[in-house]
Every structure is written in C-alpha cells, then in structure tokens.
Design brief:
Shape: globular
Distance between the termini: 37 Å
C-alpha cells in the first residue's frame, strides 16, 4: 500500500516537491497529507512537512487568502492526529513550522 510504505517516501516526496505550483500540486496536497499521516519515521515526516510548508509559501499573493487557511488548517489537524497517537515530536514539528515566517524569496 502507498500509505505507510516508507520505502517509497523519497520518491513520493521528491516527485511532489518537483511539481511547480499549480492545480496538480494542490490536487495532490491531500494525498501527501494522507501519506504523512501514516509515516512513522521522524526524518521522513519532517522532510514532508518542510515540503508542505514550502508549498504554502509558493502560493501567489492573489490566492493566499483562499488557500493558506486550507493548507494550514489541514496541517494543524495532522498535528493533532499525530499528537493524539503519541507522536508528539511530529505534532510539535508542524506547529513550529507553521509559526515560522514565510521563507518565500521570490
């Protein structure tokens, strides 16, 4: 199964990260969240969250008001789910990343 199979994590994360910002990346966002929900490795999880936050930071200004609340809300729910399953470090990592200022440089 795709979810929970961390042997494919590098490929999954690299493929998602390489997508330019657009409809496909947004469509696959929920799939990425499902994948990360099943990930147990802190290293893989943190890399995935970094990519998700990077996606948030790529949103063009015209769409930020629409998309940022959805992306951040989804990640907050993921953090709660991780924490409730005893994966506190992963939950806290999401919260920490969401508090950091956008690293957008373009």
């Amino acid at each position: 199964t795709l979810f929970g199979d961390e042997s494919a994590a590098d490929l999954i994360l690299t493929n998602y990260q390489s997508l330019s910002f657009g409809q496909q990346k947004l469509d696959e966002f929920a799939t990425m969240v499902q994948f990360l929900a099943a990930v147990k490795s802190n290293e893989t999880f943190k890399r995935g969250i970094d990519i998700m936050v990077e996606t948030r930071d790529q949103i063009p200004a015209a769409y930020k008001d629409q998309l940022v609340p959805y992306i951040e809300g989804t990640l907050v729910n993921l953090a709660r789910a991780k924490t409730s399953r005893g994966l506190t470090e992963q939950g806290q990592y999401i919260e920490k990343k969401l508090k950091e200022p956008s690293s957008k440089t373009f």
